[in-house]
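Dig into my protein:

:::
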Amino acid sequence: MTAEAAGTFRRTQIERSDQRVAWERTDQAFFAAGACHVLAWVCREFYADRSIEMAAVRFAGERQVFHVYAVWDGWAFDHSGWHPEPQLLAVNTEFEGRPLERVKITVSLAEFCEEHHSRMPNQYWRDPLPRAREYVSRYIPPWA
């Protein structure tokens, strides 16, 4: 699987307003747009023996991030699986058609959600954590 831009899976207005409709999207769409931050933190938890960091992208000069992913030794994990981080950044930049900035995330999931108006796992229609764990397990990490 090649890296895909998160924007390819942007939620529709009904998906943004109805949690059940958002939940019923494919796993990739769900974790690309709307629950990418949950997937990233689950990836770090899943591979607790690795020094996995959190990162995000935003439009250059803006404060709000629009996609979160996990990073390990130059590799990024998101809805597309494991890819070299420059590739993930390039496909998102190309899709968006404007400059992006990488942001290192150094706060907890709760702090991130508060700062960026994102949902905590208990605020979804159903618990996304088991779904995210199963999704992470589908992909072979670069160190395997």
